[in-house]
Amino acid sequence: MAAENMTDEKESAPACLAAMHLPVLRREVLNFFEPRPGLRCLDATLGLGGHAEGLLEKAWAAGIKDTELLGLDRDGAALALATQRLSPFKEQVHTQRRPFSECDQALREIGWENLDFVLADLGLSSLQLDSPERGFSFSADGPLDMRMDQRQEKSAADLVNGASVRELQNIILALGEEPLAGRIASAIVERRSKAAIKDTEDLARIVESAYPAARRAKARNHPATRTFQALRMAVNNEEGELEAFLNKIIGLLRPGGRVLAIAFHSLEDRAVKKLFRAQAKDCLCPAHTPRCICGHKAQVRLLTAKPIRPGEQELEANPRARSARLRAAERLERE
Ligand SMILES: C[S@@+](CC[C@H](N)C(=O)[O-])C[C@H]1O[C@@H](n2cnc3c(N)ncnc32)[C@H](O)[C@@H]1O
């Protein structure tokens, strides 16, 4: 395996985890992948390598062994596990520990100009969620960390203990869509004035205490769900990462090349939908403009009019897939 920028972190999960991991919407993703000789693929969120493995297996099953795959992830532990999982395909795989906002630089580093197939499966991996020491989950105690890339300086503890009440409220409202954001931000600031908030259990309790008992009793999810999601997205600049990636990726596709995105959050799905729809139009002038003055030409055709959702069977086997939405587009053959 060409393992550029490989991790120096120790694996923080057993190797069998990679084998057990169920990639979300695997069959649906593979339906969009049509193996041909000489294809170059990007898995922008390699994670535990489940989707990447599926793509390479499908190509092999079709007798094609020259498909190349570049896998990016900013999590060193995930890259280590994915590298192990993809070892049967090692001559075909490149990995880089990088944020996907740098997809253009990643391609340049291995001398590629463009791509035939791109997948971004956004959000957290099960490895991250199930490792209490990573601090992503409120259901197991751990340090308030939440960094996908552990080389990054600022963790969730820095944000929770350092941001102003207004900043916390804005983050929890905008990224968590949490109606009680103001109460939660005030509860955090009040509690940290006595002692720093250091672990996930502490934070989950504070958020819970900001919820009126009646709402707590009615809530379908744990009261801390939205707050944890918002803080994780802020710590990892997930909105900014996605925007930068979307702005670059269509320009990196070869004519006929396909890009697929799986989002778990309505904000992310909206961003994907907006970009794909805009890039599928010939004109982006405001409605009622008498004649096109923007000159925009469609770059893609949509392959999914509506997002694809997991079926019942998948949800039974993997309830975490419930909010997944897959959208796909194909670069047009023009110029
Ligand atoms: C849902 S998991 C991907 C799972 C993968 N498709 C599989 O089959 O195992 C998302 C992965 O994307 C990584 N990730 C999230 N945001 C990223 C970013 N901006 N740049 C690079 N990797 C990112 C996370 O660290 C995580 O490992």
Radius of gyration: 21 Å
Strand segment count: 7
The CATH topology name of the largest domain reads Rossmann fold
What is the element string, with H for helices and E for strands?
HHEHEHEHEHHHHHHHHEHEHE
The kinds of small molecule bound in this structure are: S-adenosylmethionine
CATH class of the largest domain: Alpha Beta
Decide which structural class fits the backbone.
alpha/beta
Q: What can you see in these coordinates?
A:
This protein is of the alpha/beta class and 335 residues long. It has 15 helices and seven strands. The protein folds into two domains: 16-128 and 238-331, Vaccinia Virus protein VP39 (Rossmann fold, 3-Layer(aba) Sandwich), CATH 3.40.50.150; 153-235, DNA polymerase, domain 1 (Orthogonal Bundle), CATH 1.10.150.170. A seven-stranded mixed beta sheet has the order 3-2-1-4-5-7-6, sandwiched between helices. α4 links the parallel β2 (68-73) and β3. Mean pLDDT is 92; it is low at 1-19. S-adenosylmethionine binds at residues 21, 23, 45, 47-51, 72-75, 78, 99-100, 121, 123-125, 148, 241.
What's the layout of helices and strands?
Layout: H1 16-20, H2 26-31, E1 40-43, H3 50-61, E2 68-73, H4 76-85, E3 93-97, H5 103-109, E4 115-121, H6 126-129, H7 156-162, H8 165-176, H9 181-192, H10 200-210, H11 213-218, H12 225-235, H13 238-249, E5 253-263, H14 266-279, E6 300-302, H15 312-317, E7 325-331
Parallel strand pairs: 1-2, 1-4, 2-3, 4-5
Antiparallel strand pairs: 5-7, 6-7
S-adenosylmethionine is lined by residues 21, 23, 45, 47-51, 72-75, 78, 99-100, 121, 123-125, 148, 241.
